[in-house]
Design goal:
The complex is a heterodimer of chains A (430) and B (311).
Chain A lengths: L9 E6 L5 E6 L3 E7 L13 E8 L4 E3 L4 E3 L5 E4 L7 E6 L4 E14 L23 E17 L9 E4 L5 E5 L3 E6 L7 E5 L12 E6 L6 E6 L4 E5 L11 E3 L12 H5 L3 E4 L5 E5 L3 E6 L8 E4 L8 H6 L9 E3 L5 E5 L4 E6 L5 E5 L16 E2 L9 E2 L11 E4 L5 E6 L2 E6 L8
Parallel strand pairs in A: 27-28
Antiparallel strand pairs in A: 1-2, 2-3, 3-4, 5-6, 7-8, 8-9, 9-10, 11-12, 12-13, 13-14, 15-16, 16-17, 17-18, 19-20, 20-21, 21-22, 23-24, 24-25, 25-26, 29-30, 30-31
Chain B lengths: L1 H20 L8 H20 L3 H5 L70 H17 L1 H4 L85 H9 L3 H11 L15 H5 L19 H4 L2 H8 L1
Helix pairs in contact in B: 1-2, 1-4, 4-6, 7-10
The chains are: A mainly beta (430), B mainly alpha (311).
């Protein structure tokens, strides 16, 4: 497993489309990219592990003098572009500015210049007696990262998500009230496609919390709201997609009503399945699977940590109730994963309906050790290794998780540590 | 009655969060503040819907914060019942035998939420005016301390209710004393919390949930240790305090929070969309927006209640 130490808290984790690269962003505005080592023929059991490939400073803190506001450098989201040539590209965003980074490798350098010597100094021309063609010689691998585009000034509110379109030419960025469509090559303008800002801000009742393009249909995208609803929009229907094509909403269970009902129904993440048929949403206590063909209610609901339902008041006080957990599909859309507290994360097998709680911590997982399932006991019979609800550490939260697009490899961000777990053995989770 | 107390507490916590958010790095987070304002409104509804007319007709102004009162931490008397006003037809809380006076007697559990008028007298036997004074004082330091208190209950301390919530059953009374519109207090009665891990919201000190007079809590648990911040006062003192009201504090808070969610975000009133766009610049001098409740009774409410109601 790879691990990264440091004071900076990881704020986003994303595999690229092949799973060869894993990017993380942190609160300090840095991006660290890990690369999976190719399998070694000598040791076939040590399948590729992830090592640091490149580190760069993506965003710096800025100050908006007009509004007397500091703009945080924290990386909110990273999205990889599909690879179209030898270079890799990714989009990284903070609250206000999206940047396109190009990552290239250099493993050869030209040698044998006629006019310059090895150090680059001009040669004395009198010593040049013949012409030679410079040749490329191998060198130590150098990974170079350069900012190719800066998409600035598109958002008044805080950007919460970006999503690359399947057309590989456009992408969208969403803030609390608006969604903009950009062309990857054009930085000086964007198209606003969703605007839910009310004419009178006093009438504000909901904000956009996440958004994503459909994986196959370049005209479809979904955005989630703080009220727990999802809106599927079709860009071919109208230029401004304020009117949704489909509205996915589950009626509230009146027996669960409390002061905090609205907060816990706010959707913190939405992800299309790889198939494009389903959507996965995360709210404070549950993950839900929605069928695009059924708007009335989710087809599956999984309790992540329902034992917290009776503790919402405390969680409101210590702000934990505002934590935004992400969710993820596995490559075959059969298992979903999300994080929780105490460095626990949960996996739900949609077929077998089994679920497991695992812990990401150095104490409980040595390299190549098998993760032991954990259990939170809520009273009643307590087994030996159970954790009681009251001893959960709410400062250890797993907000960001990612699943390799094809294999059973998961990346778990636990505060400022990154855990990568690989399932070497074919598990029943498939 | 405990819904009202819970609502009361949630209102103050929420106001504190909104207040603190103004200084946050990166600007005001619209999403979080919207959610907080929704909680605030829910709590306000419960607060207003609870039949305690005395509260609203009190007209008693908010006294200035006690000098030397610590900025952080739960203000004393926070969990105390809303004050029966001197003028209102609020029944004096007779001292029922099961409610001995004094801080040590907090163990006694009043498990009867349906007791009308007597309220949830946590400090049994307290004089009406004392409760009123305590309540008023609790409001202001809570809000004034918001700036200094930082994170409310960063999990390292017990639920701020502390001992005052000792015997307030928070679970919905069976049959629901609260009307359909009222919201249940979210946390169930929990066991004694431990200070280090963020506790379940502690509502009961006793071992059993929702029961009558509970056992004394475990010796090591914190609730016993929190002293009350203010001594009992004679009824006359309360009236005198009304005279000493310092409106500056309250006026500031009203101007900060305005009368609606956006009131706290906007620098200037409706005109100037560009300013409105600058949501995050903070309401340094936000003007009070329009009154959102036009019941005549509102005009009689003291300024602090207005701020709460308006929210």
């Amino acid at each position: 497993t790879g691990g990264r130490r440091g004071p900076d808290i990881i704020s986003t984790v994303e595999f690229n489309h092949t799973g060869e690269l894993l990017a993380t962003g942190d609160k300090g505005g840095r991006v660290v990219i890990f690369q999976r080592e190719p399998e070694s023929k000598n040791a076939p059991h040590s399948q590729g592990e992830y090592d640091v490939y490149s580190t760069f400073q993506s965003h710096e803190p800025e100050f908006d003098y007009l509004k007397s506001l500091e703009i945080e450098e924290k990386i909110n989201k990273i999205k990889w572009l599909p690879q179209q040539n030898a270079a890799h590209s990714l989009l990284s965003t903070n609250d206000k500015t999206i940047k396109l980074w190009k990552i290239t490798e250099r493993d050869k350098r030209p040698e044998g210049y006629n006019l310059k010597d090895e150090e680059g100094k001009l040669k004395d021309l009198s010593t040049v007696t013949s012409l030679q063609v410079p040749v490329l010689k191998p060198m130590d691998l150098m990974v170079e990262v350069s900012p190719r585009r800066v998409f600035a000034n598109g958002h008044t509110y805080h950007i919460n998500s970006i999503s690359v379109n399947s057309d590989c030419e456009t992408y969208m960025s969403a803030d609390d009230l608006r969604i903009n469509l950009w062309h990857l090559a054009i930085t000086d303008r964007s198209f606003n496609i969703v605007d839910i800002k009310p004419a009178n801000m006093e009438d504000l009742t909901e904000v956009i919390t996440a958004s994503e393009f459909h994986p196959h249909h370049c005209n479809l995208f979904v955005y989630s709201s703080s009220k727990g609803s999802l809106r599927l929009c079709d860009m071919r229907a109208a230029a401004l997609c304020d009117k949704h094509s489909k509205l996915f909403e589950e009626p509230e269970d009146p027996s669960n009503r409390s002061f905090f009902s609205e907060i816990i129904s706010s959707v913190s993440d939405v992800k299309f399945s790889h198939s494009g048929r389903y959507m996965l949403t995360r709210d404070y206590l549950t993950v839900k699977v929605w069928d695009l063909n059924m708007e009335a209610r989710p087809i599956e609901t999984y309790q992540v940590h329902d034992y917290l339902r009776s503790k919402l008041c405390s969680l409101y006080e210590n702000d934990c109730i505002f934590d935004k957990f992400e969710c993820a599909w596995n490559g075959s859309d059969s298992v979903i994963m999300t994080g929780a507290y105490n460095n626990f994360f949960r996996m739900f097998d949609r077929n077998t309906k089994r679920d497991v709680t695992l812990e990401a911590s150095r104490e409980s997982s040595k390299p190549r050790a098998v993760l032991k399932p954990r259990r939170v006991c809520v009273g009643g019979k307590r087994r030996r290794d159970d954790i009681s609800v009251d001893s959960l550490d709410f400062t250890k939260k797993i907000l960001h998780t990612a699943w390799h697009p094809a294999e059973n490899i998961i990346a778990i961000a636990a505060t400022n540590n990154l855990y990568i777990f690989q399932d070497k053995v074919n598990s029943e989770m498939h | 009655m405990e819904f009202k107390l819970e609502a009361h507490r949630i209102v103050s916590i929420s106001l504190g969060k909104i207040y603190n958010s103004r200084g946050q790095r990166g600007g005001i987070k619209l999403h979080k503040n919207l959610l907080v304002s929704l909680v605030l409104r829910s709590a306000r509804q419960v607060y207003l819907s609870d039949p305690c007319p005395g509260l609203y007709l009190a007209g008693s102004p908010v006294p200035p914060p006690q000098p030397g009162e610590p900025a952080a931490g739960p203000p004393a008397g926070w969990g105390e019942p809303p004050p029966p006003a001197a003028r209102a037809a609020w029944p004096e809380p007779e001292t029922p035998p099961e409610r001995p006076a004094g801080p040590d007697a907090r163990r006694a559990v009043d498990a009867e939420p349906a007791a009308p008028g007597a309220g949830d007298t946590l400090q049994g036997g307290e004089a009406a005016a004392t409760a009123e004074a305590a309540w008023r004082r609790a409001e202001v330091p809570r809000a004034a301390a918001a700036g200094g208190a930082g994170d409310p209950a960063g999990g390292a301390d017990v639920c701020p209710e502390g001992p005052r919530a000792a015997h307030r059953p928070c679970a919905c009374p069976p049959g629901g004393e609260a009307g359909p519109g009222a919201l249940s207090c979210a946390p169930r009665p929990a066991k004694d919390e431990r200070p280090v891990p963020p506790p379940g919201c502690p509502r009961k000190r006793g071992a059993a949930a929702g029961d009558g007079p509970a056992d004394c809590p475990a010796p090591g648990s914190s609730p016993l240790k929190k002293p009350r911040r203010h001594p009992e006062e004679p009824a006359g003192g309360a009236a005198a305090e009304e005279e000493e009201m310092e409106t500056g504090n309250v006026a500031n808070l009203i101007s900060i929070f305005g009368s609606s969610f956006s009131g706290l975000l906007r620098k200037s009133p409706a005109g100037g969309r560009e300013e409105a766009e600058a949501e995050e610049s903070g309401p340094e001098a936000a003007e009070p927006g329009q009154i959102c409740c036009d019941q005549p009774v509102l005009r009689d409410i003291n300024p602090w209640s207005t701020a709460i109601v308006a929210f």
